[in-house]
Design goal:
- Two copies of one chain form a homodimer.
- The radius of gyration of chain A is 24 Å and the shape is globular.
- Helices cover about 55% and strands about 10% of the residues of chain A.
- Chain A folds into three domains: about 150 residues, Acyl-CoA dehydrogenase/oxidase, N-terminal domain (Butyryl-Coa Dehydrogenase, subunit A, domain 1); about 130 residues, Butyryl-CoA Dehydrogenase, subunit A, domain 2; about 150 residues.
- A five-stranded mixed beta barrel of chain A has the order 4-5-12-7-6.
- The relative contact order of chain A is 0.09.
- By secondary structure, chain A is α+β, with helices and mostly antiparallel strands.
- Chain A contains 19 helices and twelve strands.
- In chain A, helix 9 runs antiparallel to helix 10 and helix 15 runs antiparallel to helix 17.
- In chain A, strand 4 and strand 5 form a beta hairpin.
- The longest helix of chain A has about 35 residues.
- At the A-B interface, helix 9, helix 10, helix 11, helix 12 and helix 13 of A face helix 9, helix 10, helix 11, helix 12 and helix 13 of B.
């Protein structure tokens, strides 16, 4: 087996960190306690380990291919996707009213991690479909919901997000795709969209493209963008499929990674106009698209964790098997498996600590999302929404940047074999590199963190988080163990560094925007590192308590060691980042443009 | 043009940092002053920009291929290699007695960077040949030198290093290839070697394999390894080519990067035994091989700088061309080329600063090698040898790790386009990953740094370097400019961190080897960062002096800005690494093996 889902760690995170039992006090989630979670996760693990994971390497060798407008996916994908739909996995987090299971996002996050560990390329299809479902749930009409959602939730139809155009990547103000109103209330769509993930494929009966376009006469910039449903096949009023719409895939990209996932160039309206249906109101497209994007950003962060986990497991396996050289401490007489060597251990621990820290943060943020959307108390909803929104750019930005380091270490553990494609470690390294780019680059996440999440409220949310972290520090400092003491020290230094940076960002953003934005990514790396580390500190406390109560001692011991490693090796990077942000802004933009 | 050689920066480094003019006081290098260097570098730049660089992307699309034991290289490689030989580039650093030009390694380092920037895959063939030449120069008999060196120096024959076997990667004690003495003084060689770069190809008339093998009855372990010349075609006494030797390429690897460079599995002696000639004495093979490896390690470090430079140039070009979004400081009214965005600037400056710092260190170390080998004064030779040997693991380890970060940022600057293979940025990212692995992984370099270079003399060499750095600090602190002041502060903090680590390593190495080796790679990253940073501090001083004298103001201003950026963003990472090494050793090996 090439992948074993870390179900025990998911359950630990859900129980001890995300507070899943508390979510069961919310009426919608009354049944979604630890027993349900355990059952769902075990089943999800089985499916992904046995059905999806074995297709991962095959997808790299035998990617999706394009011919005459038709995309053929990797052999096995179509059948696996059918099983995915039949198993109810697409509907996991979606409302029961449309055929879903209505489970919390906290549990969903674990399931999303599993399918992405199993196969990043395959998992992108349901990931985009999730986003399209969320957008329709929020902004679609009742008729649109009734028509489109059930087959999407069922996994018979899939969804896409059509934002990017050749001249408009991160900058959606530059979108040019045109929508012409028709007498029957529909629109004709004309334009070219690029980088459309699963924009064309053979795994579903229909594809529901959600397309950003400008209604003729709409204002310039982002205020003139509307959102349209443009199905591949026109959907009749009874839900049956009608004619082929004028939306065609003219090519797919030749990419460094996630090769099995077709990245389409879509041409709308080359044969008279693609029929589109307005979602919500005209000119509010960006707002609706942000719903999809925010869901997708969280999910892409989880993709980072997922590929890191897979790379870690592969590296551990190799390190156990590969015999090479005598350990420096003489603990083995002759040549030993390389897992005995200190630097291999350092690499594996780095991979593990970063992955577990980011996972813990994603589970906690998932539970906050659930409370933000479903808790009966408005203040609790608001507090959780604020927490969640602060974490989204960190989960997207930090977890994906982390995955670059982890997958690189994964190759490194393999030595020369890591560079040989057949070994498989290289695929994770190649696949991961898209994660810091799509759904908003790390810099775009950092802009969000600096502007909307920190600057807008003068750093209030950030400082409130720092105060919560200080409480965790106090709990750690009160424990006797060397691990807890070391953690408390490193957490304190990191938290103080965070506060310095928050004050810098909140204080200088308006007068010296370049100075602040020059440090935006280091700030994101600092904050992500700290927030994931904070969860590892909480995990350490919980693991010590569980140990004292005699629970699963090997697992809890490992959690404590991993947390201590995180503090001493990962959190230890934070103060240097503070110095970079606070003192280094001036030298970032000092170079004259023509001197580069 | 896809690559422009940074000749101005090479000349600055040779003149202001490496002290090329001082080398001309050494009789062998009397003619190798700045004028010679300028002429050689300009010519080398032209050749690599026009002939070698255009083949880089073609090599990725159309890699070397194997059929029936024959390897066909990328179209254009054979002709380019002929031009390389005809231009005298293979002989640049080699003795005039064998047809070379006898130029200093300092100048050679610049030329090696250029050819590797132009085409990492292509450059590997001469790189390995250089190593083989050095080994034969040191350990070969006069007869062997006379027979093999002239065609190798001329670029008609190439060389290889045959160390690795399936069970023996980093651990040469495990080498099993067998050598049976024959009555005529030759040996018959039997065994399998893997990962042999340019182990078979069509660019040269003959290939001189240098092969590690065990003479029948030799001692176990590394003390029983001998070095053999095993030519692809037997060489007659008059230098003409005789029969095909029993050394055959049975396959080449399918790799993530450097695809044009054939990585061969070589089978020796499957048809009766390959004829081998002992180099030097039996059982001293490892010692001779280290000559090759040390030359190759320096060169691989330069490869890291080279691919980083190429990635930087490509990213700058894209950042100038790609128009996207309005800058946050309002400096441009509408959408602007992305080079106007602060985070793009941060990425480009990071790429540039790291590359220039490592380049400066390589040039300085190259000059130390020249003095170590050719200076008339024995003490000067010794001092330079000590300096050079300390720097080799840093140049190999740090410059290549740096290249991973730089090539990753290079993709990132390109956004989604960076992930599309046709853009070309992804190739550098894939190519670079081998650099931290071959010729000794980063961990192997770090072992060398910890053991032979720091522990063995109780940290004396390291502390002497720290004292030199302190002098540079004092010079910087005495300058008024904000750049120099900032540099002095950051350099001091980094130097103090280095001293702490050196004391820790020297003090604990024997009693607690795991504790020390657990921090070996962070120590290497710290030391490499500092030593490259030290050179950037020296560059800052030299650039300010040059400015005051009215020299090339744009270049010198840019150097000062880049140095300040290095101090505030790169050197700023050092103190965190100190904490990791000094306080984090315990948690690295604390995890029970079965808990991974």
């Amino acid at each position: 087996m090439t992948y074993r889902a870390p179900v025990k760690d998911f359950m630990f995170g859900l129980k001890e960190l995300a507070g899943l039992e508390q979510l069961t006090h919310i009426p919608e989630f009354a049944e979604a306690g630890l027993d349900t979670a355990a059952a769902v996760l075990e089943e999800c693990a089985r499916f992904n380990e046995n059905v999806v994971a074995p297709l991962n390497w095959e997808g790299d060798r035998n990617p999706s291919s394009w011919k005459d407008g038709v995309v053929t996916t990797t052999p096995g994908f179509k059948e696996a996707f059918r099983q995915f739909g039949d198993g109810g996995w697409q509907g996991l987090q979606h409302p029961e009213a449309f055929g879903g299971q209505g489970l919390p996002k906290a549990i969903g996050a674990a399931c999303i991690e599993m399918i992405n560990s199993a196969n990043l390329s395959f998992a992108l299809c349901p990931l985009l479909t999730d986003g399209a479902i969320e957008a329709l749930l929020t902004a679609g009409s009742d008729e649109q919901k009734a028509l489109y959602l059930p087959p999407m939730v069922e996994g018979r139809w899939t969804g896409t997000m059509n934002l990017t155009e050749p001249q408009a990547g991160s900058d959606l103000a530059a979108v040019r795709t045109k929508a012409e109103p028709q007498p029957d209330g529909t629109y004709k769509i004309f334009g070219t969209k690029i980088f459309i993930t699963y924009g064309e494929h053979d795994m579903a009966e229909n594809i529901v493209h959600l397309v950003l376009a400008r209604v003729v006469g709409a204002p310039e910039g982002v205020k003139g963008i509307s959102l349209f449903i443009v199905p591949k096949f026109i959907v009749n009023a009874d839900g049956s499929l009608g004619e082929r719409n004028d939306a065609h895939c003219v090519s797919i990209e030749h990419k460094m990674g996630i090769k099995a996932s077709p990245t389409a160039v879509l041409q709308f309206g080359d044969h008279g106009g693609a029929i589109g249906h307005l979602v919500g109101q005209e000119n509010r497209g960006l707002e609706y698209m942000f719903i999809m994007m925010n869901a997708a950003r969280f999910a892409v962060g989880v993709q980072g964790i997922a590929v890191a986990e897979r790379a870690y497991q592969k590296a551990v396996q190799y390190a156990r098997d590969r015999v090479q050289s005598r350990p420096v401490d003489g603990s083995v007489a002759g040549a030993a498996p390389i897992i005995h060597h200190a630097d291999v251990r350092r690499m594996l621990m780095t991979m593990r600590a970063c992955t577990e820290g980011c996972r813990a943060l994603a589970l906690v943020a998932g539970a906050a999302y659930d409370a933000a959307h479903h808790h009966p108390d408005a203040d609790t909803r608001q507090a959780n929404q604020t927490f969640y929104e602060f974490m989204v750019p960190l989960i997207k930005g930090y977890s994906t940047e982390m995955s670059l380091e982890v997958t690189s270490l994964g190759v490194q553990v393999h030595g020369g074999m890591g560079f040989i494609e057949e070994t498989g470690a290289a695929q994770y390294y190649r696949d991961a590199k898209i994660l810091t780019i799509y759904e908003g680059t790390t810099a775009i996440q950092a802009n969000d963190l600096v502007g909307r999440k920190t600057g807008r409220d003068g750093g209030r949310t950030a400082k409130a988080l720092a105060a919560q972290i200080e409480q965790t520090e106090a709990l750690l400092a009160a424990r006797d163990s060397a691990a807890a003491q070391s953690f408390a020290r490193n957490l304190k230094a990191a938290r103080l560094a965070f506060v310095d940076v928050v004050e810098f960002v909140a204080g200088h953003g308006k007068a010296s925007p370049n100075l602040v934005f020059a440090g935006s990514v280091p700030y994101l790396m600092l904050a992500g590192n700290l927030m994931a580390g904070w969860q590892m500190g909480r995990a350490l406390l919980a693991a010590q308590d569980a140990l004292n109560e005699g629970e699963d001692s090997a697992f809890m011991q490992a959690k404590i060691v991993t947390a201590q490693f995180y503090a001493e090796h990962i959190l230890a990077r934070v103060p240097g980042l503070r110095d970079t942000v606070v003192h280094g802004g001036g030298s970032v933009c000092a170079m004259p443009l023509d001197a580069f």
